[in-house]
Design a protein that fits this description.
This protein folds into two domains: about 80 residues, OB fold (Dihydrolipoamide Acetyltransferase, E2P) (Beta Barrel); about 230 residues, Multidrug efflux transporter AcrB transmembrane fold, CATH 1.20.1640. The chain is elongated and about 85 Å long. With about 350 residues, the chain is an alpha+beta fold. The chain has nine helices and five strands. Strands 3-2-1-4-5 form a five-stranded antiparallel beta sheet, with no helix packed on it. Helix 1 packs across helix 2 and helix 5 packs parallel to helix 9. Strand 4 and strand 5 form a beta hairpin.
């Protein structure tokens, strides 16, 4: 009886990530690919990564049909992927630019301005920002990837982030305490509203490509729908920080300048200013989300479908729910925090 030998598929070529700098543009012209003209460049690069350091390579950019062709110039630092085909020939592809240097400079400018203008409070706010970043990086993201409920994880993290960052930035006092409690109450309301409207609007969370990639990578370990809720809560947390501490500060400033005001008068005057905060912050929130979704909005501006159909798309409905729920939480945070701050200021509680 002849022996049966099962052929094994050849192993996929291993891809190595490298960095390089463009040293020479040997050729640049317009070529025709699939009936359309596009930019073609023949580039000489010098690899700067340790493994193949100082090795010179040639890459032809724009030889095949690509939706967006980048025009590279001498001095550009780029990321490469290096692999070998099944005959052992080395293949190199430019993936992206190296952007670390300008990002570092931008971050340094931000730190310097925060410390110079904000002084001690600015430095404290940087410490709070670092704490929030560490909580997100080392607690929220690993726990969600491990399969834990995103909502529970984010709420737990919020209970750590809110008091720590508030007291670091604004000091241990009744004003900050009023803002902390007001933020927590408004955040709970925002979470309940988000949960309800994500449910009734039947959002699945798969409107973005990232959600699809995450699902295929984790094979159902991460609850994508709850991830939408967690994102809304985190987004609202950043906005509530500003509005609640500002409102508490207004109450205490009014109490300091006019201590004879009754509880009702203090609340009314603080809410008069709070209404201006609501008007400006809701508009700011709308513009922030609009800016983030600008490419999406441009896709629909000349859409032949009616408006009622367009807003029904999940990718649009998700942004509407995100914006309106966060705005409602913001609006409710103003009277809640004002009431608490007035009670603390008048020593009722």
């Amino acid at each position: 009886m002849p022996q049966v030998v099962l052929a094994q598929a050849p192993a996929a070529p291993q891809v190595e990530n490298l960095e390089a700098v463009i040293t020479t543009v040997k050729e640049e012209k317009q070529i025709e690919v699939n009936g359309k003209k596009q930019l073609y460049q023949k580039l000489e690069l010098t690899i700067t990564s340790d493994k193949q350091k100082d090795k010179k390579i040639i890459i032809e950019n724009g030889k095949t049909a690509i939706a967006t062709i980048q025009r590279y110039k001498v001095g550009d630092k780029v990321a490469l992927s290096a692999s070998k085909d099944f005959q052992g020939k080395e293949l190199y592809t430019i993936n992206d630019y190296i952007r670390r240097a300008p990002l570092v400079w931008l971050f340094l400018i931000f730190i310097v301005l925060t410390v110079v203008i904000g002084r001690k409070r600015g430095l404290a706010s940087l410490a709070g920002m670092l704490f929030s970043f560490l909580i997100i990086l080392f607690f929220i993201l690993p726990q969600i990837l491990a399969g834990f409920d995103p909502i529970i994880i984010v709420i737990t993290a919020s209970l750590l982030i809110i008091p720590t960052t508030f007291y670091l930035s604004h000091g241990f006092n009744k004003k900050t305490t009023a803002a902390v409690i007001g933020t927590l109450i408004a955040l709970v309301i925002t979470g309940v509203l988000a949960s309800f409207f994500v449910e009734v609007t039947k959002l699945t969370g798969f409107a973005s490509e990232e959600a699809g990639f995450l699902e295929s990578l984790k094979q159902g370990t991460v609850n994508i729908r709850d991830l939408v809720l967690a994102g809304i809560i985190i987004g609202a947390l950043g906005i509530l920080d500003d509005i609640t501490i500002s409102q508490a500060a207004i109450v205490y400033q009014l109490e300091h300048t006019s201590p004879r005001l009754t509880f009702g008068e203090l609340y009314a005057k603080a809410m008069d200013i709070g209404q201006d905060h609501i008007a400006s912050m809701v508009n700011t929130l709308f513009l922030v989300y609009t800016g983030a979704a600008l490419p999406l909005l441009l896709l629909f501006i000349n859409n032949p479908h009616p408006f009622a159909e367009v807003i029904n798309y999940e990718i649009v409905a998700e942004e509407i729910v995100r914006t309106l729920v966060a705005s409602i939480g913001l609006i409710l945070a103003v009277p809640i925090t004002t009431l608490l701050a007035c009670a603390f200021a008048k020593e009722i509680i």
